[in-house]
Specification:
The complex is a heterodimer of chains A (203) and B (777). With 203 residues, chain A is an alpha/beta fold. Chain A has helices at residues 15-27, 38-42, 64-73, 89-97, 110-142, 146-156, 161-168, 172-185, 191-201, and strands spanning 7-11, 31-35, 51-56, 80-84, 102-105. Chain A is built from nine helices and five strands. In chain A, strands 2-1-3-4-5 form a five-stranded parallel sheet, sandwiched between helices. With 777 residues, chain B is an alpha+beta fold. In chain B, helix 9 runs antiparallel to helix 10 and helix 16 runs antiparallel to helix 17 (586-615). The chains are: A alpha/beta (203), B alpha+beta (777). The A-B interface holds A 14, 16-17, 19-21, 23-28, 85-87, 106-110, 113 and B 554-555, 558-559, 562-571, 573-578, 585, 588, 591-592, 595, 598-599, 602.
């Protein structure tokens, strides 16, 4: 099992629906994990694999909406595809407002299901890679000394070495050395690269 | 205390005043009739054996002959006195005179005269009212009731009279006092009292006539001729005395019998009348009046035995009567009756006259016409006023009654009327104008207006209804249900349509005959509107409830079915994918198919479970009254029937055995047949909108319920498929009613059949078996 292979979680209390969905996703080549309740899902070990959650909106005990809330509170970025049945429009509205990725009405059409799953997995993969990059940048930023960070912010703001030196009350030459170190530590190839990093991850 | 009793009291008071002084034969001199004094003789016969013939044959036959020359005076007890004298009329005209004797205690007084042809003509005495002599101012005449004889002397004639009198008490023959009488009617002082009686009697007659016209009391009508004949008798001079004293002396004088009988009838009628129409001016007087009446009757009897004592007692009775009158008058004055003051004045006048009479009786006052006039006027006032009071009271009572009934009738909110047996309206309450816009006069003028106002759709109802025959105080007499109000619509004069709740009953007269119909029409438009609104709301609510129920059911079904459907779809699609792999993953496909089979079964189970409560286990049959069930359904449909203008007629046989079955299901059958009939009848004219429900036992084992309508009948092309489901002629409806009904009836081991003819309408017949012995409750 590759670290980047996507996985689809199915949470539904109805075994028949759960199993049939898993079966179809399996047939479509996805790795599927099924849970018969929200509580069971919350107990699964954390993973960083691209994934999506197919969640029945109407379940005894903790229902889909509650699970969505819990996941959001925990900062999860896992896309959720809600399974809706008859008479669940008001819940669907709530779920949608809370950022549900998509809605799948039972009985679920194959194309609709697979397209939604594919899209959600792709999105999650993007989110995950973005997060990875950001973590890297933050790690680099953390390795800067205090003076280097000061120089970093001034340079990113577009100040010249001379101006930065005046502000910091140090020699222009010293600024230049710091700047070289910053570029190196942040693995930036150019000033534009550095500005982009700052804008994307460090605002 | 009424006029009759009063009158009696007066009569009694008049005859009751006893004579005082010695019994004498009195002959008063008169200007134009000259007694021939030397030929007058008086004798006494203690043996009372002498007759007139004896005396004519032998003038000396009387043993104690008394003449001025022989004996100054003689005293006898219970002797017969004879007076013998001749009267001559020297004038050219016939003279009417009265011979009177101052001999009130005399019995068997008779007057004989010898006619020119020698025949002897004998009369027994009439009695003259005492006042006639009381008004003579001779100074020798006592105030007393005296025997008197009217006589007629032809012109230039001479006639000899023999007066005979049996004395009841001491008889004193006082020659000095003997005076032949032939007192002149022209004598003014005599005439006043005498004519007063005639006038009084005539007035009494008129008064009776007037009283009759006022009070319509028949007794007055009978009494009027009596009073008038009373006047006539007075005029004739002899009868008056009989009327007064005939009762007392009648039996003693044979010739007075008829008059005495008439008097008896007269007084008897007075008594009867007293009982019949005594105006209760003071209720407590009723009993004293009875006492007076009984006392008077007692006096009458007593007077037969002892006239003298009767006179005294009747005087007492009269004295008793006066205060009673006074009390009645005072009570009337207190009540504020204006006429009562005159009544009271009459009492006072009469009292003064009576007091005066007493004074005269005791010799303290001279008799005269004045007290008689007062007594007469007072009596007249009493009689007239008490009658007027009676009439006024009756009128007031009538007015009160009329006013009470008029108020009750006229101030009703509902439109009330009374239609006589001839169909003409006898009464219409003014409220009809509020309800219909037409004034009562319009209805009184044209009784068919009621029908004309009924809207055409409801005329059938109006004409079909009958009124119960009942007595106001009792339940209906023909066994119909009590609450049989009829609802129909009328069109007001302004075009508005009002709902009327009509109730009526046949009026039973006091003689038990038919006096028409009493109807009550209540405007119930607001109530009806409210009911319709309520009905609409209710049906809308029911519809909403149905929709909601269906929605709920759908949600349940949708969810329960959707789950396996969703599962099946996913499995099938997954299976297809595995099938299209190279090589096909047949094991996975099998798993998919297994899952599909399981899901399908699950869906079937859901459907089965849903059907279960609808079918339900069959209810245990219980004994049911089909009549009650049918009436219950009709009641349920009442609003619908009214709206559709359909009348339900019942033809229910007595003593129907119960049928066994499920109440709700049988109700459903009746409901279905009835609603079908109502729907069919909407197509026909209002008069034909009648549903007949017939219930009868076909035999011991089955009951038949027929629902018959006068509709157009069943089209032949529909007839064969009538009981097939989803066959309907209605715009609305599923067409399952008859199908379900037949299923239910057959489940009850019965039959449901339809019979139809184009002109006769349609009859649905439900035949249901009665309860077997094992099912009877």
């Amino acid at each position: 099992m590759n670290r980047n292979d996507p996985v689809v979680f199915v949470v539904d209390n109805d075994a028949s629906v759960r199993d049939s969905l898993a079966f179809l996703l399996d047939a479509a080549g996805y790795e599927v994990e099924t849970f018969d309740s929200c509580a069971a899902f919350l107990e699964r070990p954390a993973s960083t694999r691209p994934a999506c959650l197919i969640l029945d909106i109407q379940m005894p005990g903790m229902d889909g909406l509650a699970l969505q809330e819990r996941l959001q509170a925990a900062g999860s970025t896992l896309p959720i595809l809600f399974l809706t049945g008859y008479g669940t429009v008001p819940r669907s509205v709530r779920a949608f407002k809370a950022g549900a990725a998509d809605f799948l009405e039972k009985p679920v059409e194959e194309e609709h299901l697979l397209a939604a799953v594919e899209e959600a997995l792709g999105r999650h993969a993007t989110v995950l890679s973005h997060e990875e990059e950001r973590a890297e940048v933050e790690r680099c930023f953390a390795s800067l000394s205090p003076r280097e960070r000061e120089v970093f912010w001034l340079v990113v703001k577009g100040l010249r070495n001379r101006e930065a030196a005046d502000i910091l009350g140090i020699a222009e030459k010293t600024v230049k050395i710091h700047r070289g170190r910053v570029m190196e530590k942040m693995r930036a190839d150019s000033l534009a690269d550095l500005v982009s990093l700052a804008e994307r991850f460090l605002q | 205390m009424g006029p009759p009793a009063l009158r009696l009291a007066i009569l009694l008071s008049l005859i009751a005043l006893p004579a005082r002084g010695a019994d004498r034969i009195l002959v008063l001199p008169s200007a134009d009739v000259v007694p021939i004094a030397p030929r007058m003789e008086v004798c006494a016969d203690p043996s009372r054996a002498l007759g007139i013939e004896d005396l004519i044959a032998d003038p000396d036959a009387c043993p104690f002959v008394k003449s001025p020359e022989r004996v100054p005076s003689l005293h006898f007890t219970k002797a017969r006195a004879w007076a013998h004298f001749t009267l001559r009329n020297g004038s050219d005209t016939s003279l009417r005179r009265v011979l009177a004797l101052d001999l009130p205690h005399a019995l068997h007084v008779s007057l004989s005269d010898v006619r020119p042809d020698g025949s002897v003509h004998t009369r027994e005495a009439g009695w003259l009212a005492p006042t006639q002599l009381a008004s003579t101012k001779s100074g020798e005449v006592q105030w007393a009731a005296v025997p008197a004889f009217p006589i007629v002397l032809p012109p230039h004639s001479e006639r000899t009279y023999y007066l005979s009198a049996d004395a009841d008490g001491p008889l004193i023959l006082d020659v000095n006092a003997y005076t032949a009488i032939a007192f002149a009617r022209q004598d003014a002082s005599l005439r006043v009292g005498y004519d007063m009686y005639i006038v009084l009697a005539l007035l009494l007659g008129l008064y009776h006539v007037a009283a009759y016209s006022l009070t319509r009391t028949r007794a007055y009508l009978i009494l009027a001729p009596f009073a008038i004949s009373y006047a006539l008798l007075y005029y004739l001079g002899s009868g008056a005395a009989h009327v007064h004293l005939g009762l007392a002396l009648g039996p003693l004088t044979r010739r007075a019998y008829p008059l005495a009988g008439a008097s008896l009838v007269f007084f008897g009628l007075l008594f009867v009348r007293s009982f019949l129409s005594v105006p209760s001016t003071a209720p407590w007087l009723d009993r004293p009046l009875l006492v007076v009446v009984v006392a008077s009757a007692g006096l009458m009897v007593l007077s037969l035995v002892d006239p003298a004592d009767a006179m005294w007692l009747s005087g007492i009775a009269a004295t008793v009567a006066l205060p009673l009158h006074a009390a009645a008058a005072i009570a009337a004055v207190r009540r504020g009756q204006r006429s009562a003051q005159i009544y009271l004045a009459g009492v006072l006048l009469f009292t003064v006259a009576a007091l005066h009479g007493l004074l005269v009786m005791w010799g303290l006052e001279d008799p005269g016409p004045f007290p008689v006039a007062m007594a007469a006027a007072g009596y007249l006032a009493l009689a007239v006023m008490s009658t007027l009071a009676l009439a006024a009271q009756a009128r007031t009572r009538l007015e009160e009654v009329w006013d009470r009934y008029r108020t009750v009738a006229d101030f009703t909110h509902d439109w009330e009327y009374w239609m006589g047996a001839d169909g003409a309206l006898k009464y219409v309450s003014p409220s009809c104008e509020r309800v219909t816009g037409h004034p009562p006069e319009a209805f009184l003028r044209d009784p068919s207006l009621v029908r004309a106002l009924v809207v055409p759709e409801d005329r059938g109802l109006w004409e079909a209804h009958t009124c119960r025959r009942s007595r106001p105080e009792g339940p209906s007499t023909d066994g119909e249900r009590e609450d049989d109000a009829l609802l129909f619509r009328v069109r007001r004069s302004d075009g508005a349509v009002r709902w009327i709740e009509h109730r009526c009953q046949r009026v039973v007269g006091t003689d038990g005959g038919d006096s028409g119909v009493r109807g009550s029409n209540r405007d119930v438009t607001e109530r009806q509107d409210a009911e319709h609104q309520l009905e609409q709301n209710r049906s809308r609510l029911a519809q909403m409830a149905r929709v909601a129920t269906v929605g709920e059911l759908t949600a349940v079904v949708a969810h329960e079915i959707n789950q396996p459907l969703a599962s099946i779809l996913s499995r099938a699609q997954g299976g297809l994918r595995f099938l299209s792999r190279e090589p096909p993953a047949l094991e996975r496909v099998r798993a998919a198919l297994d899952g599909i089979v399981a899901d399908d079964r699950r869906a079937s189970a859901v459907i089965r479970r849903l059907r279960e409560p609808l079918e339900g286990p069959p209810a245990k049959p219980v004994p049911l009254d089909l009549d009650e069930i049918a009436r219950g359904v009709v009641e349920m449909l009442r609003a619908e029937l009214e709206r559709a203008g359909v009348v339900v007629r019942w033809e229910v046989a007595d003593g129907l055995p119960p049928v066994c079955g499920n109440r709700v299901q049988l109700e459903q059958v009746v409901l279905n047949l009835l609603t079908n009939a109502v729907a069919v009848l909407a197509e026909v004219e209002p008069e034909r909108r009648v549903v007949t429900i017939r219930l009868r036992g076909t035999n011991e084992t089955a009951v038949t319920l027929e629902v018959h309508d006068q509709g157009p009948g069943i089209a032949p092309d529909v007839e064969d498929s009538l009981f097939e489901p989803f066959v309907t002629t209605k715009v609305k409806g599923l067409g399952v009613g008859l199908s379900i009904s037949r299923t239910i009836v057959e489940a009850h081991e019965g039959h449901l059949q339809a019979r139809s003819a184009p002109e006769e309408g349609t009859t649905f017949t439900v035949l249901l078996p009665t309860c077997g012995p094992e099912n009877r409750a």
